[in-house]
């Protein structure tokens, strides 16, 4: 089997023989005949002590000294003996003595397939994210088979499945299995996969071992939360208490863990008002009332909700909650009074509209139905309109400012809700004065007593009239009235102050000239038309005693007051002689004359009546009485200062016949005078009566001559284009015909038959009326009739039948009588339409009637020209500012014309023009989308806002050309919500960001557009394994390095970012514990440092499996191998192993005889393990090297002489070749064994002995001694 080399006497031969034997053979099995193979004499083996001197301590092999056969001494397990070593060699050192021979034999223990592959654990659990891309590998436990060669693990097989496959990586002699993902995982379909990995060796038959693989599919956030409904609808009563639960929404997410934990929130585009009214519990999905919910603010709320899970990145789902608010009767009616003026003239006719009352109740339905009434007993009434909750405050009776000048009208509006709510509003109506009261004098006629002889120019009297009207209507001017029967030249002597009514005389009055006169003063107010009244002033001139009595009789021919009276002498006593007549122009006491006799010839004869001036006889005349008597009569008045006159009467006594003739002449003269006075009085009275009759006739004629034909004045036929809002069909029974014109009552009755200018009103007792809508704008109708009759307009019977019941009856309102449309943004001053013409108003009277707009927008967007009745744009109109999103945008204008009052409603529709471009709230929208997002997923984008309406608002959304995204539109009511749809899977490592442009275009012509920059940031998903820069790192490290010395820094990169790209390093799970004891691995830096003592002599190569794992969820990992080759250092001293056959050597041994076998072992390698061995000086021994390194024989160099030197202490020095060299000293004790090579010798020869006598027999008497240098037996 092997050759034997002899290197001189006693030299060693290494591995001279080599045998092979399978493991597990029975004890006693023959390995080989070593003696025969070495060429030894089998018969001498026992004598030569043929034996094994080195090898396994447990005596795996035995040598039979009888036949030289090497056999199995103990059952061998190759895996136990040579675990991990491919070729298992057992080196045996065999010695035979006499002469000493050393032989080396190697026995190779060959492997048999006695082990099955085994895995470190019976089950391995893997956690793999469901978004892991196909092709990803996962290292799994390798099976270990202690057998070698073909008997070790050769293949791995995986149980049949559609998802996974295996891949084997050869790493030197290892086969590392990897689980390879073939198809995408879906946790929601299958959360766990159970596989069996079978490892097979190459034996025949093959043995196998299995590993149960449990693959838990880790959830990734690949499912959106899904609401139980796309749209939730719920009703909520307004004024619900804060905290009231509105609805609880529910969303589910098929994912698990944080990926399925859902948070609810309002959509980002939600209006702030919604956030103020409602709160959303982010955990439970409960929507509760947060603020005051008012039906009147909004009847419905649309809440866009978003359910977002807590995955990274989060996924969201959308839903909408429609909250319909139920109205409660929580709003009191609101009374809006549109007063044409809070001052109304007192001459208004019953039925005249004072104010327009709009009663609004923000509640709806019955709660918003309002009944309005007036509480007080006032001459006003509320007349409902055909339009709900609209009333006209009209006069019920005639007003009289002078009786009641102010009314506080309390209007109560009560809704029909439960409980009923009321609003009270007081409307102050001031009754304005009209000139309906004439100035009145407190007394008529007036009597003025004026003392004559007044000073010219002085005030003599003042007239004053009172007018119950006020202001100008009560401002009175005074003037004289001129006319028949009145003093024509009054102004020549009287003057009147027109403002104060003071009368002054222009000259001095003379009672005697003018005793009385009368005149009329007219008091005229300043109203329009003015009213007046007259007062007759009777002026009585008061007499002053400025005239002396004038003797009327007797008067002489020359004018003196002298007269001769002849009386018969025979008259009796008491006879009237004469009567003195005196006249005093004064009156009263001043003109009351008293007569007295101043002088008389015979006091007893004549007597004078002091009051009448009659002179009578006191007695009869006698013969003795003188024939002639002279009487001096004093006539004086009774003034304060009496004035007087005297008259002389001469009484002549005559015979009786003469006296009678004179008396007859006087009596006839007096009768003629009285007849003249009566005639004059009759003429005067007749003239006055005639004049009065003529005046009456003239007045009657003037009244009768006034025209009653109002046709040409008020009802001129004129046709206009207009819009008929309503038509009325009626059945008439008895008819009454009425003509309505200015200042006329509806009840004014005229003679039937005036055709086109006749209004026929059905008798309400037998007429039914049907009102129906009619909107034929192409027809031509007469103009509208004013509420109080109108001015100059053509009216046809059927048209009046419509207008009066609707427009005039109870002054009801007609809504939107005329409707115009005007585009927004038109220039200021642009004509909307001729309202006056379309309403049929008399354009010439517009200004006088104060034709105007009384309600509309506060900004006065429109104005009306009173000169031509044109409605024009007053301010620039922006439909979006006025009506926001309300369509159509209708501006209701209330137009009023006064005298008589008319109310018209005009609707102006502001049509939209495409003057606004779609606009996004922000210029840029940043979306974060995970690269693991499945295709088809939608992401809501901000909507563009276009204030325009209709076709001019947003119609389409477009996305710029790209391969990853498309746009999808969802209709939500009138809104169009754009969604970004993922078309192609994202890869952040290729494109971290996508720049898109979303364009919103409206439907205008040309269309306008707005753009939104959409930046899609691709969020990293943990879809990349860490990758080491090398699959195998190889590094050398010297042994005995200090602890914490850096060995190598492995580096792995992960294309992911964030936590997905943060890598941690770990040692492989199947490393021996000694690796963990020797090295440490910084999990963050990948730096491997020395932890324990590295000894080349123990392990010269370390193989470390390093595991790099990212921090993603779930983590992904990869492996590399680090081979650390230990560099030997000369840190081991040589070890001298002495194989001594015996520690004694015979002194007769020949030079060259092997005394010891010396094996020098240095665990270092290379030069460090190369050893030079030497002996101490002056010893009879020498070292002979073997052909095998570090093997020596200690041989005799010369003959020995025990008797000279019986013991040697030989110092062996072994020095390696390292730097610095290390040495080992070993002392070997050799005793020289004696051989009988010396004769005994006496110390003295001859010897003399002196013996005393009488010794006792048998006692010792002397001793002789001889010395022998030999020992033991040889000394005997």
UniProtKB/TrEMBL annotation:
Compartmental location: Cell membrane
Membrane topology: Single-pass type I membrane protein
Coiled coil: none
UniProt keyword annotations, A-Z: Calcium, Cell adhesion, Cell membrane, Glycoprotein, Membrane, Repeat, Signal, Transmembrane, Transmembrane helix
Signal peptide residues on this chain, from the entry's feature table: 1-15
SMART domains from the UniProt entry: CA (SM00112)
All residue ranges annotated as the Cadherin domain in the record: 13-119, 120-227, 228-335, 336-441, 442-551, 566-665, 814-920, 921-1028, 1029-1136, 1137-1242
Molecular function (Gene Ontology), one example: calcium ion binding
Biological process per Gene Ontology, one example term: anatomical structure morphogenesis
GO CC annotations on file: plasma membrane
Pfam family, one: Cadherin_C_2
Transmembrane segments: none
Role played: Potential calcium-dependent cell-adhesion protein. May be involved in the establishment and maintenance of specific neuronal connections in the brain.
Protein name: Cadherin domain-containing protein
Species this chain originates from: Dissostichus mawsoni
Top-level taxonomy: Eukaryota, Metazoa, Chordata, Craniata, Vertebrata
């Amino acid at each position: 089997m092997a050759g034997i080399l002899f290197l001189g006497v006693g030299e060693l031969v290494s591995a001279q023989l080599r045998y092979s034997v399978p493991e597990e053979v029975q004890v006693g099995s023959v390995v080989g005949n070593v003696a025969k193979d070495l060429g030894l004499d089998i018969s001498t083996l026992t004598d030569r002590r043929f034996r094994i001197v080195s090898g396994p301590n447990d005596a795996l092999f035995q040598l039979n000294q009888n036949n030289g056969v090497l056999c199995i001494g103990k059952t061998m397990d190759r895996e136990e003996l040579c675990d991990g070593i491919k070729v298992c060699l057992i080196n045996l050192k065999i010695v035979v003595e006499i002469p000493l021979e050393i032989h080396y034999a190697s026995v190779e223990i060959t492997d048999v397939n006695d082990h099955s592959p085994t895995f470190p654990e019976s089950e391995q659990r893997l956690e793999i994210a469901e978004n892991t891309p196909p092709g990803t590998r996962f290292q799994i436990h390798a099976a270990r088979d202690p057998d070698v060669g073909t008997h070790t693990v050769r293949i791995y097989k995986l149980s049949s499945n559609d998802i996974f496959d295996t891949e084997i990586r050869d790493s030197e002699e290892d086969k590392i299995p990897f689980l390879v993902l073939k198809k995408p995982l879906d946790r929601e379909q299958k959360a766990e996969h159970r596989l069996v990995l079978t490892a097979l060796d190459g034996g025949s038959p093959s043995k196998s071992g299995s590993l149960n693989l449990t693959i838990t599919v880790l959830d990734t956030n690949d499912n959106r939360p899904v609401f139980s409904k796309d749209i939730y609808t719920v009703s909520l009563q307004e004024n619900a208490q804060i905290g009231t639960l509105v609805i609880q929404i529910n969303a589910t997410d098929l994912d698990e863990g944080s990926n399925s934990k859902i948070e609810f929130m309002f959509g980002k585009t939600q209006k702030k008002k919604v956030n103020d009214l409602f709160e959303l519990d982010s955990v439970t999905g409960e929507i509760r009332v947060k603020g005051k919910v008012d039906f009147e603010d909004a009847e419905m709320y649309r809440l866009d909700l978003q359910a977002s899970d807590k995955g990274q990145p989060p996924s969201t789902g959308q839903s909408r909650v429609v909250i319909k608010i139920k109205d409660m009767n929580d709003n009191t009616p609101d009374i809006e009074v549109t007063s044409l003026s809070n001052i109304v003239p007192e001459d208004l006719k019953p039925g005249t509209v004072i104010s327009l009352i709009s009663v609004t109740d923000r509640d709806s339905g019955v709660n918003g139905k309002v009944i309005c009434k007036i509480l007080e007993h006032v001459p006003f009434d509320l007349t409902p309109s055909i339009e709900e909750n609209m009333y006209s405050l009209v006069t019920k009776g005639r007003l009289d400012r002078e009786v009641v000048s102010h009314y506080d009208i309390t209007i109560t509006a009560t809704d029909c809700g439960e409980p009923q709510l009321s609003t009270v509003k007081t409307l102050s109506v001031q009754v304005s004065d009209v000139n309906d009261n004439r100035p009145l004098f407190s007394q008529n006629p007036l009597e003025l007593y004026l003392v004559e002889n007044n000073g010219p120019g002085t005030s003599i009297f003042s007239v004053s009239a009172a007018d119950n009207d006020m202001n100008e209507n009560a401002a009175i001017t005074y003037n004289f009235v001129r006319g028949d029967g009145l003093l024509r030249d009054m102004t020549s002597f009287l003057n009147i102050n027109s403002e104060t009514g003071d009368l002054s005389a222009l000259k001095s009055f003379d009672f005697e000239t003018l005793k009385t006169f009368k005149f009329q003063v007219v008091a005229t107010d300043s109203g329009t038309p003015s009213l007046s009244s007259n007062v007759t002033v009777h002026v009585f001139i008061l007499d002053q005693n400025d005239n002396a009595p004038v003797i009327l009789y007797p008067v002489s021919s020359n004018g003196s007051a002298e007269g001769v009276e002849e009386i018969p002498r025979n008259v009796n006593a008491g006879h009237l002689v004469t009567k003195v007549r005196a006249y005093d122009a004064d009156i009263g006491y001043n003109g009351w004359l008293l007569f007295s006799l101043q002088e008389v010839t015979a006091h007893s004869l004549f007597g004078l009546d002091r009051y009448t001036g009659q002179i009578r006889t006191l007695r009869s005349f006698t013969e003795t009485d003188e024939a002639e008597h002279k009487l001096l009569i004093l006539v004086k008045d009774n003034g304060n200062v009496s004035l007087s006159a005297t008259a002389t009467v001469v009484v002549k006594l005559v015979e009786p016949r003469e006296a009678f003739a004179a008396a007859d002449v006087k009596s006839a003269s007096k009768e003629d005078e009285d007849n003249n006075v009566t005639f004059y009085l009759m003429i005067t009275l007749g003239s006055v009566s005639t004049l009065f009759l003529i005046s009456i006739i003239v007045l009657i004629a003037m009244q009768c001559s006034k025209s009653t034909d109002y046709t040409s004045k008020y009802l001129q036929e004129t046709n206009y284009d207009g819009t008929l809002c309503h038509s009325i069909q009626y059945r008439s029974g008895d008819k009454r015909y009425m003509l309505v014109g200015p200042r006329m009552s509806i009840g004014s009755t005229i003679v039937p038959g005036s055709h086109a200018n006749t209004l026929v009103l059905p008798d309400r007792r037998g007429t039914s009326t049907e009102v129906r809508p009619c909107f034929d704008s192409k027809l031509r109708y007469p103009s509208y009739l004013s509420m109080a009759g109108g001015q100059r307009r053509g009216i046809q019977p059927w048209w009046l039948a419509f207008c009066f019941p609707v427009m005039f009856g109870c002054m009801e309102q007609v809504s939107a009588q005329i409707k115009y449309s005007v585009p927004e943004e038109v220039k200021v001053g642009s004509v909307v339409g001729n309202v006056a013409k379309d309403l049929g108003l008399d354009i010439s009277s517009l200004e006088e009637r104060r034709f105007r707009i009384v309600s509309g927008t506060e900004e006065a967007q429109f104005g009306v020209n009173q000169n031509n009745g044109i409605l024009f744009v007053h301010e620039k109109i922006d439909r979006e500012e006025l009506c926001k999103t309300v369509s159509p945008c209708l501006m209701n204008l209330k137009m009023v014309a006064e005298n008589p009052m008319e109310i018209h409603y005009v609707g102006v529709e502001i049509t939209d023009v495409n003057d606004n471009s779609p606009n996004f709230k922000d210029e840029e929208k940043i979306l974060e989308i995970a690269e693991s997002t499945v295709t088809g997923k939608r992401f809501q984008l901000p909507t563009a806002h276009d204030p325009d309406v209709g076709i001019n608002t947003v119609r389409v959304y477009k996305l710029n050309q790209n391969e990853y995204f498309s746009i999808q539109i969802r209709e939500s009511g009138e809104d169009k919500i754009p969604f970004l749809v993922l078309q192609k899977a994202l890869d952040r490592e290729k494109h971290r960001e996508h720049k898109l442009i979303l364009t919103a275009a409206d439907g205008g012509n040309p269309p306008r557009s707005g753009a939104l920059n959409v930046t899609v940031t691709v969020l990293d998903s943990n879809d990349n394994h860490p990758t080491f820069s090398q699959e195998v790192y190889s590094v050398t490290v010297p042994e005995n390095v200090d602890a914490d010395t850096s060995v190598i820094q492995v580096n792995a990169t992960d294309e992911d970012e964030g936590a997905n790209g943060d890598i941690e390093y770990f040692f492989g799970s199947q490393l021996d514990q000694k690796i963990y004891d020797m090295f440490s691995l910084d999990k963050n830096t990948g730096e491997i440092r020395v932890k324990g003592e590295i000894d080349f002599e123990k392990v010269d190569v370390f193989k470390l499996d390093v595991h790099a794992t990212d921090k993603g969820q779930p983590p992904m990992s990869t492996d590399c191998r680090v081979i650390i080759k230990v560099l030997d250092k000369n840190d081991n001293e040589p070890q001298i192993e002495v194989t001594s056959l015996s520690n004694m050597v015979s002194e007769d041994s020949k030079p060259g005889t092997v005394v010891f076998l010396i094996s020098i072992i240095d665990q270092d390698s290379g030069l460090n393990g190369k050893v030079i061995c030497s002996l101490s000086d002056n010893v009879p021994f020498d070292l002979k090297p073997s052909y095998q390194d570090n093997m020596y024989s200690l041989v005799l160099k010369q003959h020995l002489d025990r008797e000279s030197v019986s013991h040697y202490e030989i110092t062996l020095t072994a020095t390696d070749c390292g730097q610095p060299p290390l040495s080992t000293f070993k002392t070997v004790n050799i005793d020289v064994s004696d051989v009988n090579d010396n004769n005994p010798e006496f110390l003295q020869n001859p010897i003399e002995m002196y013996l005393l006598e009488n010794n006792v027999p048998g006692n010792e008497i002397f001793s002789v001694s001889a010395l022998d240098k030999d020992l033991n037996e040889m000394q005997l």
